[in-house]
Design goal:
The protein is α/β, with parallel strands linked by helices. It has 2 domains: 3-242, VC0802-like (2-Layer Sandwich), CATH 3.30.2130.30; 258-468, HUPs (Rossmann fold, 3-Layer(aba) Sandwich), CATH 3.40.50. Helix content is 39%, strand content 17%. The protein has helices at 21-36, 64-71, 91-111, 113-116, 124-127, 150-155, 197-214, 268-278, 296-313, 324-333, 339-358, 377-384, 400-410, 413-416, 438-461; strands at 3-10, 44-49, 52-57, 79-86, 181-188, 220-221, 228-234, 238-242, 258-262, 282-289, 316-322, 362-364, 391-392, 464-468. The strands form 2 sheets. It has an 8-stranded mixed β-sheet with strand order 2-3-1-4-8-7-5-6. Strands 13-12-9-10-11-14 form a 6-stranded mixed β-sheet, with helices on both faces. A hairpin with a 3-residue loop joins strand 7 (228-234) and strand 8 (238-242). Helix 10 (324-333) packs antiparallel against helix 15. The longest helix has 24 residues, at 438-461. The structure holds adenosine-5'-triphosphate and magnesium ion (MG). Adenosine-5'-triphosphate (ATP) is lined by residues 262-264, 266-269, 287-288, 347, 365-367, 371-372, 374-375, 422. Magnesium ion (MG) is lined by residues 264, 266, 422.
Length: 469
């Protein structure tokens, strides 16, 4: 077959990391291959080519619809481009292939938009492709305009109205905004090719325009702010593609070291775990469980959350730790309005001991500054010294709504929303102190620590571990 459908996988940020580049590329390649295993397709090939991966089916067109769902959530992938690869090199043939590809992409996008999840779309100014895109055209380069709101731009192709398309019908009335302009951008790695990049772009652009005119489609060339860019790459083979669906971004899972995530059944900590994992931190989750004050269903809820996170990370190690004895001890031995602070310190002490055993190097919590009394800066300062490792708080500066939006996107929202409480009212102070003095707290804890410490060790020794896949 001269020409076939393939998928290009771009990994923007990795290419910036010179020293680690090889390591990162191999980690990503392994993950993509592992995720595609269930397809059981011996013809499927994933290969690395200057700054991107190529996924193809050696027997013909790639069935992208079966491939994409398996690799969409892999951290470290900046984006996916639906492409055709051809062995033809004659410019007339290339014009034909380009024109067919372009027309097919438009037709597909305009018909079943939902089904394709929109890989043809989003003018650069809406997508956040940097103005310097021309200069770095090797990368998809999709900087996260807003880390917590990735989906907004990912989905915007379905609803956006190009500024130049005055009078376009409302989003609900159309599958895809009609395209008004395009450009062709050619990159020629094979310097022996007889035409320059500009000449190739011009030839292909002219062909597309002529066909559009024949078909009665109103299309024009706009080299500055086109609605759509057709990319052409002349290598050993020639590739045509249109900037596609955005990936999760971030860094390959596990390459940034390991961290212990304090995972409750609430909305925040799952999102914190997702964000840390997206930066490449391998997650060992710990849930402090307090039977009989909370039901087993609370622990099940945390297991379900962990398995949702595992959809991004392949697996998550979850430690369910019996916390009741520690809680009861602290309730009896500390002032009630300070109990929450001592409980959180105990969690950080135990999580640090777990981190030691697991060879993890940080703790991760779902704290957001000012969200509740125990998350004021004073309270965070009062718990910090209990941690033997740096405490990452990926949500520290996030608003609740942003956190909820991310929870919805990553699929933990519905699970966290289940009504089982993760903390028994017996242990929640009616008037928790929101400006504790950290020195006073540390002094108080030091007086009871000789008794508290073995209780915490005992809890860790009796913890149950689950490998959530
Ligand atoms: P979340 O929504 O994550 O439960 P929250 O807003 O309810 O957070 P807190 O209950 O004060 O706030 O908890 C702050 C952080 O402490 C949580 O995000 C989590 O990292 C950790 N944490 C609290 N309770 C538990 C628990 N039972 N097991 C594990 N971690 C916990
Ligand atoms: Mg909570």
């Amino acid at each position: 077959m001269h020409t076939k459908k393939v998928l290009l996988v771009k990994y923007g940020e990795l290419s910036l990391r010179k020293g680690n580049r090889k390591l990162f590329e191999h980690a990503l390649l392994d993950t993509i291959r592992a995720n595609l295993k269930p397809l059981n397709n011996e013809h499927l090939r994933v290969s690395r080519e200057q700054g991107r991966f190529l996924i193809e089916d050696t027997s013909g067109d790639l069935d992208t619809a079966s491939v994409l769902p398996l690799i969409r959530r892999i951290f470290g992938i900046a984006g996916f481009c639906h492409a055709v690869k051809t062995t033809m090199r004659n410019i007339d043939d290339l014009c034909e292939v380009a024109n067919d590809f372009f027309a097919a992409q438009i037709a597909e996008a305009q018909s079943g938009f939902e089904g394709t999840r929109g890989y043809l779309h989003v003018p650069p100014e809406k997508r956040g492709v940097a103005p310097g895109f021309e200069g770095t055209r090797d990368h998809l380069h999709v900087p996260p305009e807003n880390d917590l709101a990735l989906p907004a731009s990912r989905e915007c192709s379905a609803t956006h109205t190009c500024p130049r398309q005055k009078g376009a019908s409302p989003p609900e009335k159309r599958g895809f905004a009609p395209l008004a302009s395009f450009k062709v951008e050619t990159k020629r790695s094979d310097k022996n090719y007889p035409l320059t990049s500009t000449e190739v772009s011009a030839e292909i652009g002219a062909k597309i325009l002529t066909s559009a005119e024949k078909a009665g489609t109103n299309l024009k060339v706009d080299v500055h702010t086109p609605d759509i860019t057709l990319w052409v790459e002349i290598r050993n083979d020639v590739y045509f593609y249109i900037t596609g669906e955005r990936g999760e971004g971030g860094l390959p899972y596990g390459l940034s070291g390991k961290g212990v995530l304090l995972l409750s059944g609430g909305f925040d900590s799952p999102v914190a775990g997702y964000l840390a994992a997206r930066r490449g931190v391998e997650i060992v989750a710990v849930y402090f469980h307090s039977p009989p004050f909370v039901s087993e269903r609370a622990a099940d809820k945390v297991k379900d959350i962990a398995s949702q996170l595992a959809k991004y990370t392949s697996r998550v190690k979850l430690c369910v730790l019996p916390f009741t004895e520690t809680q009861v001890f602290l309730k009896e031995n500390t002032p009630h309005e300070k109990l929450t602070i001592f409980l959180k310190r105990a969690m950080l002490h135990i999580a640090s001991r777990l981190a030691d055993r697991e060879r993890a190097l940080c703790l991760i919590t779902g704290d957001a500054v000012g969200q509740v009394a125990s998350q004021t800066i004073h309270s965070l300062a009062a718990v910090e010294s209990a941690a033997a490792f740096p405490v990452l708080r990926p949500l520290a500066a996030s608003d609740k709504q942003e956190i909820m939006d991310t929870a919805k996107r990553i699929g933990t929202y519905e699970i966290s929303a289940r009504p089982y409480e993760d903390c028994c009212t017996v242990f929640v102070a009616r008037h928790p102190e929101n400006k504790p003095n950290f020195r006073a707290i540390e002094r108080m804890e030091s007086r009871i620590f000789a008794e508290l410490s073995p209780i915490m060790d005992n809890a860790l020794n009796n913890a149950e571990f689950f490998d959530i896949i």
